[in-house]
Amino acid sequence: MAEYKVLVSDKLSPEGIKIxxxxxxIDVDVKVGMSxxxxxxxxxxxxxxxxxxxxxxxxxxxxxxxxxxVIGRAGIGVDNIDVDTASKRDILVMxxxxxxxxxxAEHTLALMLALCRQLPQADASLRAGRWxxxxxxxxxxxxxxxxxxxxxxxxxxxxxxxxxxxxRVLAYDPHIVKERAQDLGVEPVQLSQLLTESDFxxxxxxxxxxxxxxxxxxxxxxAKPGVRIINCARGGLVDETALVEALQSGRVAGAALDVYxxxxxxxxxxxxxxxNVVLTPHLGAATAxxxxxxxxxxxxxxxxxxxxxxxxxxxxxxx
Length: 319
Ligand code: MLT
What we know:
The protein is an alpha/beta fold and about 325 residues long. It has helices spanning about 15-20, 35-40, 60-65, 85-90, 100-115, 120-125, 155-165, 180-185, 190-195, 215-220, 240-250, 290-310; strands at about 5-10, 25-30, 50, 70-75, 90-95, 145-150, 170, 185-190, 200-205, 225-230, 250-255, 275-280. The strands form 2 sheets. The chain has a 7-stranded parallel beta sheet with strand order 8-7-6-9-10-11-12, with helices on both faces. Strands 2-1-3-4-5 form a 5-stranded parallel beta sheet. Helix 10 links the parallel strand 9 (about 200-205) and strand 10 (about 225-230). The longest helix has 21 residues, at about 290-310. It is elongated and about 70 Å long. The structure holds D-malate.
């Protein structure tokens, strides 16, 4: 009989499930779409739990998870997991920080280009039977300044691609390593300089109490008039109320967003009434390649941890 039981509670690419199935020490159950009560009632029997972003691993789920040793997040953000409580209960939380970096960086670039050329609006206009050539006057990325907040896995992949498009790239990251910035051809700056000099600002940090609303009214007022803002990281990094006001007044020329303070975005949200925005439903990591990468990474890491005690990509430090 297998020594460990792993529950996969969100949709995971089959390649990842296969890794669990091939490990003789592990029995894997895939139960997608469970209610919180169903999860609480079955979690006791599992040593490992694999999630993406749908399952909310809250304190009451963890209280019932008396045998749980590891939670694996197939993706980067762990805001759907109560990491502090997991640490107190001696449960390791691990993510897969690199598997979807390219997908998210490419989506960031796609949003920037779509915003500059009003692609969704032009497509909708043509489908409505119009031919409005003069209405959709765009702007170029070439020779513009991009300010990247957070030069980690995704931020640095965005920087490399933006350099390829001929942009000047500034980066604000308190953990920035000067040599790394130099290698990328990026200028490390303070947030105040990034705000005043950037034509485009793209955010690539996790959502924490420190980064919550890090682009708010004050920062928008300090930014270059006509700036365009892209957020492909986490809702809540940009204060949506302040952003909507600035988009309405034209202080911010446009925004391209993939993530929101509340997801799914409520149908009456003021952002949906604005013309100068491009919105996608949290698609940053939604490529076949990225989903395969994160599934393989999380499964390999969890098997290694359960079977060999090897810790990779831990985001907490259990007591
Ligand atoms: C991530 O955190 O990995 C991305 O935002 C995608 C996701 O939430 O699955």
